[in-house]
Write a structure and sequence with these properties.
This protein has 15 helices and 18 strands. By secondary structure, the protein is of the alpha/beta class. It folds into 2 domains: 268 residues, Aldehyde Dehydrogenase, Chain A, domain 1 (3-Layer(aba) Sandwich); 181 residues, 3-Layer(aba) Sandwich (Aldehyde Dehydrogenase, Chain A, domain 2), CATH 3.40.309. The strands form 4 sheets. Strands 12-13-14-11-10-15-16 form a 7-stranded mixed beta sheet, with helices on both faces. The protein has a 6-stranded mixed beta sheet with strand order 7-6-5-8-9-17, with helices on both faces. A 3-stranded antiparallel beta sheet has the order 3-4-18, with no helix packed on it. Helix 2 packs antiparallel against helix 4 and helix 4 packs parallel to helix 5. The radius of gyration is 23 Å and the shape is globular. The N and C termini lie far apart (67 Å).
């Protein structure tokens, strides 16, 4: 494959569509290659092998698991350029963003390599003198994950890192749209010394079938999913039969709020970073903008001017800041939301142009009202609807008026307002005067129908461990 110098990253590929799934470049439509497909018996065999391998992996000293994970981390860094190119080819995001994701994904491997040595239990003061009480933490067993196409490396490493650090074995099903990055990063894990049965990538021709296997197999003790709320509901229902441990990172409808005392220039910078990263195809990107009436015109003018400077094109081309959306269906859905908003009275701040292929012109919509259909939907595209408000309480009610509760953002320089709004927003994460909030050291996750559980931070490894209480009597 062009641009990939380390061909060992592609050793998993199969020669034709009879043996695998065709992976397309969304910028050009070209077939990049074929990723291997696992039939049901293959997946069942993978689970059996993972169960056997997990016990040996868990028996290793945590320091040994940590050392292997650090080797994997270093190999990812060493192959940053190839992994970034591969991601741009199959996913479409600009090369600089793709390489940034590689580093972001690697940070979770490094973080959890360190956390592997810190899965502490505790001693508990006893209510009677003849007992001693303590807790220990143990791996849940075989863990599995289903990951999305928008962050094809980071969404895997954010789950695989803590699972492997805890002593679990790990099976991941990546998106059929972006499987090459998943297999490539797994190849580096094997080179680092992680046993092949401890970390496995499976790709089924029927995603629903894989989900049913993961949620029903008795040897799988934990399921982690990143994707839509609709699919998350189904997986949780299926997992309930076995009372499986689950963690869900689901849809979002992030408000981005600009108060009248905000630094408007800083708010524009934050809005650009939050909204248009990955062409707006992120679960935490700003989905709806609420701007105080006193600064509405200024913000919209400056924001629109910045958006019009964005260059749309192939992510491998120089200077491109917006790549293609992932599919024709995605483009059609985004366009229908734009058309519906305009029909309801929204006004685009620039002339709308229809671009070829899967490319879309980024657009700012003004004169949007909170009751428009576009406000209730996760846009997942380069569209920024801007709503005017004048009262803080009204703003809080509008911002919280959604089933989702993943990320939120606001800009204000009033410390009293900052505390009030931060506590009032019903979201798992709040960016205050900041448009980029994700990192490996902070807990990532939502409330309401945006999911359960946390990834990253010290909380991330607890998702893959059981707490066992030990009571020693006869003392």
């Amino acid at each position: 494959m062009q641009h990939i110098t380390n061909q060992s990253l592609l050793s998993f590929m199969v020669p034709n569509e009879q043996q695998g799934i065709a992976v397309n470049n969304p910028a050009t439509g070209d077939v990049l290659g074929f990723a291997p497909v696992s039939v049901e018996q293959d997946i069942l065999g993978s689970i059996e092998r993972a169960s056997v391998a997990q016990k040996e992996w868990a028996a290793l000293p945590s320091k040994s698991r940590s050392a292997v994970l650090l080797s994997w981390y270093q190999l990812i860094l060493d192959n940053k350029e190839d992994l970034g190119r591969l991601m741009t080819l199959e996913q479409g995001k600009p090369l600089a963003e793709a390489q940034g994701e590689v580093l972001y994904g690697a940070s979770f491997i490094q973080w959890f390599a360190e956390e592997a040595k810190r899965t502490y239990g505790e001693t508990i003061p006893t209510p009677s003198g003849d007992k001693r009480l303590l807790t220990i933490k143990q791996p849940v067993g075989v863990a599995c994950a289903i990951t999305p196409w928008n962050f094809p490396i980071a969404m895997i490493t954010r789950k695989a890192g803590p699972a492997l650090a805890a002593g679990c074995s790990f099976i991941v099903k990546p998106s059929e749209s972006t499987p090459l990055s998943a297999f490539a990063v797994a190849e580096l894990a094997y080179q680092a010394g992680i046993p092949r049965d401890v970390l496995q990538v499976v790709l089924g021709s029927d995603a629903r079938q894989v989900g049913r296997i993961f949620t029903s197999h008795p040897l799988i003790r934990k399921l982690s999913f990143t994707g839509s709320t609709q699919v998350g509901r189904v997986l949780m229902q299926q997992s309930a039969n076995d009372i499986k441990r689950t963690s869900m990172e689901l849809g979002g409808n992030a408000p981005f709020i600009v108060f009248d005392d905000a630094d408007i220039d800083a708010a524009v910078v934050g809005a650009m970073a939050s909204k248009f990263r990955n062409a707006g195809q992120t679960c935490v990107c700003a989905n709806r903008f609420y701007v105080h009436s006193k600064v509405y015109d200024e913000f919209v003018s400056k924001f629109s001017a910045a958006v019009q400077q964005l260059k749309v094109g192939n992510g491998l081309d120089e200077g491109v800041s917006i790549g293609p959306v992932i599919s024709a269906a995605a483009k059609q859905n985004i366009q229908s939301l734009i058309d519906g908003a305009i029909a309801q009275g929204a006004q685009p701040m620039s002339e709308l142009r229809t671009l070829d292929g899967l490319f879309m012109q980024p657009v700012v919509l003004k004169n949007v009202t909170h009751d428009m259909d576009i406000i209730a939907n996760e846009i997942f595209g380069p569209v920024a609807p801007v709503i005017k408000f004048s009262d803080d309480q009204q703003l809080i009610e509008m911002a919280n008026d959604t089933i989702y509760g993943l990320a939120s953002y606001f800009y204000s320089q009033n410390i009293h307002r900052v505390w009030k709004i931060a506590e009032a927003l019903e979201y798992g994460m709040v960016g205050i005067n900041e448009g980029m909030i994700s990192n490996e050291v902070a807990p990532f996750g939502g409330v309401k129908q945006s999911g359960i559980g946390r990834e990253g931070a010290k909380q991330g490894i607890d998702e893959y461990m059981n707490i066992k209480y030990l009571c020693f009597g006869g003392n």
